[in-house]
Amino acid sequence: MRRNRVGFMVDTAISGFAVGAGFAILENLTYIPDLSASGLFTSAIRGLGTAMMHGGTTAIFGIVSVNLSEIRASRSSAIFLPGLAIAVFIHVLYNQPLWRPVTAAVVVLVTLPAVMSFIFWRSEKALERWLGTKLDKDIDLLQMMSTGTFSSSHAGGYLHSLESTFTPEILGDMLSYLQLCLELSARAKGDLLRREMGFPVPPDPELPAQLKELGFLEAQIGRAGKLALAPLLGHSRRDVWELQHLAEKQESAAG
Q: CA-CA 20 to 30 A from 200: which of 28, 146, 149, 191?
């Protein structure tokens, strides 16, 4: 999340479950000396139950945190506290002496798949809404730029209001940066839609040069220019993720 390596709830769920499962492997090694005392069946059930519990709670921790990050548009450490509290509560509840190991494992194995299925369903719905809304906005701005109507739009008026703040050269770079960002954003979403429909997406030989130009323009306009363009670009965590994902996908295809 800190490095924008996850884009949607499903990404966070998979990453979180993998972390929890990795810890569970190490924890289950401590149960091996007790096999003779508790029996193979009980030890296996207990190990499976705790593995699912650790994977599930870590996945829930990630999902709650990534949702709060999206809603509040923040990367503060405070967004991790609610998910951590839920994970601790589930862990404490699971370890209560009232639960027999087999009963606790069965409860986890029954309820966790339902919870994870709901998370995947929510993630797919969020993906559909994001693709449709953001893609339409990007295409509308690109069409206004190509038809010469951008200057008379609200977005164009906003850029004109920055003439007293930035030099003409910087404003020109900001406009180029805006157009290139929109093109890459629309391209990334189009590729994702084609993949969802099962169509192959060939690598674009021009993409490395475009990403290099994007980095150059970003350095030219500086932090102030990026902040000024934020209302037009909506550079949320997902937007940054999609551009990084596009670059990594191109590098993998070239390798």
A: 146
Predicted local distance difference test score (pLDDT) of residue 205: 81
Share of the chain above pLDDT 90, in %: 14
pTM greater than 0.90: no
What is the share, in percent, of the chain residues with pLDDT greater than 70? Answer: 83
φ/ψ of residue 37, rounded to 5: -80, -45
**Mean pLDDT score, 21-29:** 88
pLDDT (mean) for 86-100 = 83
Token digits of residue 44: 């296996």
CA–CA gap between residue 232 and residue 143 (Å, rounded):
14
Q: Which residues contact 131 (CB under 8 A, 6 or more apart)?
A: 189, 192, 193
For residues 7 and 5, what is the distance between their CA atoms, to the nearest angstrom?
Answer: 7
Q: Are 10 and 120 in contact (CB under 8 A)?
A: yes
Question: What three-state secondary structure class fits 96?
Answer: coil
- DSSP-assigned letter for residue 79: G
Q: What is the number of H-type helices and E-type strands within the chain?
A: 9, 0
Contact predicate 171/208, CB 8 Å: no
List the end-to-end C-alpha distance of the chain, in Å, as a whole number: 26
Secondary structure, 3-state, 109-138: HHHHHHHHHHHHHHHHHHHHHHHHHHHHHH
